[in-house]
Amino acid sequence: MNSTIPEAVLRADEMLYSVLERVAFSRHLNPTNAAEARKAFQAGTEVPPFTYQPLSEADEILRVLDEASPPRDHPAGLLVGQCFDGACRLLRALRDRTPEAFHDMNLAADWYPTDELLSQQYAPSSHAREPMDVTASQLIEHFEVAIVDRKLEGWVVEPDPIMSARVLVDGAKRLIRVRPNARFRARDLDRLVVHELDVHAQRSMNGRAQQLRCFATGLPSSLATEEGLALVAEEVSGTSSPGVLSRQLEVVRAIDHARKAGFKEVHDTLAERVGPGLAWGISIRIKRGLQNPGLPGVYAKDSVYLSGRTQVRAWLDAGGDVSLLYVGKVGLHHPVSKWLKDGWIQPQLVPDLWTA
What we know:
The chain is mainly alpha-helical. It has one domain (about 5-355). About 55% of the residues lie in helices and about 5% in strands. A hairpin with a 4-residue loop joins β3 (about 165-170) and β4. It has a 3-stranded mixed sheet, covered by helices on one side. The chain has a two-stranded antiparallel ribbon with strand order 1-5. It is built from 16 helices and 5 strands.
């Protein structure tokens, strides 16, 4: 690949980055009334009455992205164009909130679980669970110390009540969001630093050093590598949560079920295996964003944790060089070695956990 990236591609990449930097998509994806919806569901309402913050500017952003789409006759233009395509599918899903729009996004991103993934088996944890007595404020303080220690310049942590996850990293904004009413176990403090900072934030930070901003926000189909690497990093650092793989397998099975079932059926089936608390957490994550979660349809992104962990672990065990995964938010399938050889991208910092 020629190390010179056409100006039109660089402009398009900057335009997409400006959109991702400005719009907090997670605030439109997650229900604004999760606690109230859970109470209604527990009281007997068949379909949780989720409400969402409307993405009223979706059509305008789609128009802007259509006009700014890069030429795709250069490999860098093809990469950036694929990032445009992914952003547009997400915008349409958040605008329409239909099973069909989410299906288009899931299919293009390759998020639906394969038969091979569904057939995996992991034993549940036999460890006694520690109390969840660490507050979000304590985690935020822990993150802030770790950010300084890792020299992640410009990164900040802030509470955000409109989240289904407890923690979220937004690379475009250099922001770590923490749900303020979330609780954590003591072991989660170091585990989340490894997962969120040593993988998500560091890969994004390294990507900012490359010519294209999309290396900071995520190349096409890089998410499975991103989340898989984070789970493997937990294992390498000795901070992994007991039973995490068996729980991720339940998520994958629920995603497959939700393609043809509504919220209550998915939740009740899960609750028989994992209990009502975890069943609610999984169900809201895979039905979020949809206007009517009582219908078949799914937000299938969370399958990437287990699929990605399987892929990254196999790749590393076969001799893969982890430094190739730290040039930015790339995927295992990207020709990183060639890009480095051609001078199109540059090597970047690898966290100490991989060299200890």
